[in-house]
Amino acid sequence: MRPSRLSSPRVQTIGPSRRALLLGLLASGCTPGAPALQGGWVGTHPERGHRLRGELPRGGGPLKKTGVLIVGAGIAGLACARALAQRGVDDIALLDLEDQAGGNSRGHSLAGSSCPLGAHYLPLPGAEAREVNELLHELGLAREQFGRTVWDEKHLCHSPQERLFIDGEWREGLLPLPGSAAAREQYRRFSALVTQAQRELGFAMPTQHARWKPGHAVLDAQTFTAWLDANALIDAHLRWYLDYCCRDDFGAGADTVSAWAGIHYFASRHGFHAPGDETGEREPVLTWPEGNGWLSARLAAPLRERIHLGRTVLRVTEQREGIELLAWNETTGAPERWAARAVVMATPLFISARLLATPPDALRTLKQAHAPWLTANLALREPLLDRPGAPPSWDNVRYGSTALGYVDARHQALDPTPRPPLLTAYLALPAASRGGLLAKPWQHWAEVVTTELAATHPDLPGKIERIDLCRFGHAMSIPTPALRGSAELAALNAQRGRVVFAHADLAGYSVFEEAYTAGVDAAARLSL
Ligand SMILES: Cc1cc2nc3c(=O)[nH]c(=O)nc-3n(C[C@H](O)[C@H](O)[C@H](O)COP(=O)(O)OP(=O)(O)OC[C@H]3O[C@@H](n4cnc5c(N)ncnc54)[C@H](O)[C@@H]3O)c2cc1C
Questions:
Q1: Is residue 269 part of a domain?
Q2: C-alpha distances out from residue 75 to 41, 71, 296, 360, 479, Å
Q3: Which of 33, 193, 292, 490 is such that its CA lies 20 to 30 A from the CA of 103?
Q4: In contact, 259 and 227? CB cutoff 8 Å
Q5: Does residue 165 surpass a pLDDT of 90?
Q6: Short-list 223, 123, 210, CA closest to 478
């Protein structure tokens, strides 16, 4: 019953005449004589990561020595460094190939305002997320008062939080309302099944704080689509929404991710509140103009000179006495050699498999697919006209689209000066688009993004001042069937010694809570 257009995440296209018009507008800056559209790629350097495909360079100058090397300064690497420092381990060096720490959780600046490059929010963590809660308290985002956690309002998403464009108008919230009594019954049944799974099996965020049971394995063995079909949950609106949620958190749709992942999404943190459900309050989230770049900047700040940016690690070799590492210094254009007692591999697992001279068997045999993503920050010259219905919100999504909508980075700014919005658009792309992300010019992808946004804002193409695009060739692990329960992930999560792994990939999918906890956990498993 599910419409086939929902079955694969792909960007909707438009007919040739409208495309020609949009291209014309983009190229001309929209008014005759106006300058051409300004923009380009920002944030990531695919050519650096692709150095791993070439031969290893010789030489490397004098050996640089440290106690612990952390490869990758994303959330997991930064969390690991923080946890080691708390253990009193101070001789640490973090190496990252990009020019800014934070990995997928970095901020950007455009038209005088901060905006996200990638990750943009963190739902309020549950009690199981002990490590994350501890961090948020320490950063002053939360405090305990009379036995209750009180959150600093400044960092909670301001109202209105989200809206959905459907049937020609904006409606509050992202859940499309059921169209009939039969559909309403399906929403309620899905909600009841999520509650039942939570009660009988237990789901937690981060996943490692929930015990893996045979019932989880049953869900992990099938796709979410197969599970929905088996439960006769076929309403088109409900299916679009569930597919959207999967693409938003996992980078792939319901027919690609496991039923474990689909249910985990709701049972672990978001909840599913059918319309009319009294507990159906909007889920509060923490967010900042620069998205989770706010968090990564605060994790990185105390580490100062321990972070070495523009260092592409090429090889990590375990020796009898310790670790030797070869990196490429992107600034000097020369190799660097490092020696340490131990190493934390805080890179995606498929990269760790390439970097380690002798990867463990689990890393060699692990099969894990990563979704490509594209984000675009659009600075506008003037405010957008709006369609009827719910007012402009932080998160704005179009029903039926395979793109993920946009957030307004200025929504959360505390500066009261009226300014046009600064939009951050998100697209999770099918694997087949990875080559195009690398090969096609930024103008092509600017058109893709603009076309999508013009479906809700026809005046947008004429109002773009600048568009900065960020491509992530291998953004996040897709929790495909049999990945989460695999023996390989279990072994890599448990590995102790002088080489340990720390990355959201260890959970089978990528969110802040998983990355952060993986980093803290790796610090505890590291032998020094
Ligand atoms: C577009 C996008 C939006 C997202 N939105 C959200 C969100 O709103 N909320 C949320 O919770 N999560 C979101 N996520 C998930 C996000 O991935 C996690 O929250 C988290 O940032 C992952 O951290 P990590 O440390 O596990 O991985 P990464 O961010 O992948 O960090 C790995 C680091 O290793 C470095 N590296 C790789 N290879 C090498 C090498 N050879 N040498 C040196 N360094 C190397 C990379 O540069 C990177 O800094 C989003 C992800 C993307 C891509």
A1: yes
A2: 23, 12, 6, 24, 19
A3: 490
A4: yes
A5: yes
A6: 223
pTM of the model: 0.94
Please answer whether residues 212 and 483 qualify as being in contact, where contact means their C-beta atoms are separated by less than 8 angstroms: no
Is 476 in contact with 251 (CB distance < 8 Å)? yes
Sign of the alpha-carbon torsion through 123, 127, 128, 129? positive
SS3 330: coil
Which of 94, 347, 349, 468, when mutated, tests ligand 1's pocket best, judged by the most ligand atoms within 8 Å of its CB? 347
Whole-number pLDDT of residue 280: 53
Give yes or no for a contact between 501 and 349, defined as CB atoms under 8 angstroms apart.
yes
Whether residues 235 and 100 share a domain: the answer is no
Structural domain contains residue 253: yes
Name every residue whose Cβ is closer than 8 Å to that of residue 185 and which is 6 or more positions away in sequence.
none
Compute, in angstroms, the gap from residue 419 CA to the centroid of ligand 1.
30
Question: Is the distance from the beta carbon of residue 123 to the nearest atom of ligand 1 less than 6 Å?
Answer: no
**Nearest residue to 86 via CA among 525, 526, 520, 527:** 520
Beta bridge pairs of residue 163: 172, 396
Q: Assess whether 75 and 217 both reside in one domain.
A: no
What's 224's domain CATH number?
Answer: 1.10.405.10
The minimum-distance atom of ligand 1 relative to the CA of 104 is: 29
Which pLDDT band, with edges at 50, 70 and 90, does 417 fall under?
A: confident
Report the residue among 104, 208, 478 best suited for mutation to probe ligand 1: largest number of ligand atoms under 8 A from its CB. Answer: 104
- Which of 53, 105, 245, 426 has most ligand 1 atoms within 8 Å of CB, for mutation? 105
- What single-letter amino acid sits at 357? A
Per the CB < 8 A criterion, the answer to whether 165 and 456 are in contact is yes
Domain final residue pick, 257, 281, 305: 281
* For range 473-494, the mean pLDDT: 98
Which residue type sits at 325? L
Strands (DSSP E) found in 64-201: 64-65, 68-71, 92-95, 107-110, 113-116, 121-123, 142-145, 148-151, 162-166, 169-172
What's the pLDDT tens digit per position in 298-344? 999 999 999 999 999 999 999 998 999 999 999 999 999 999 999 99
Q: How many domains does the chain have?
A: 2
Name the residue range of residue 275's domain.
184-281
Could you identify the atom of ligand 1 that is nearest to the CA of residue 78?
25
Tell me, yes or no, whether 77 and 208 share the same domain: no
Residue 511 region, left (φ>0) first, then alpha (ψ -120 to 50), else beta? beta
Other CB atoms within 10 A of residue 126 CB:
16
In this structure, the answer to whether residues 276 and 297 fall within a common structural domain is no
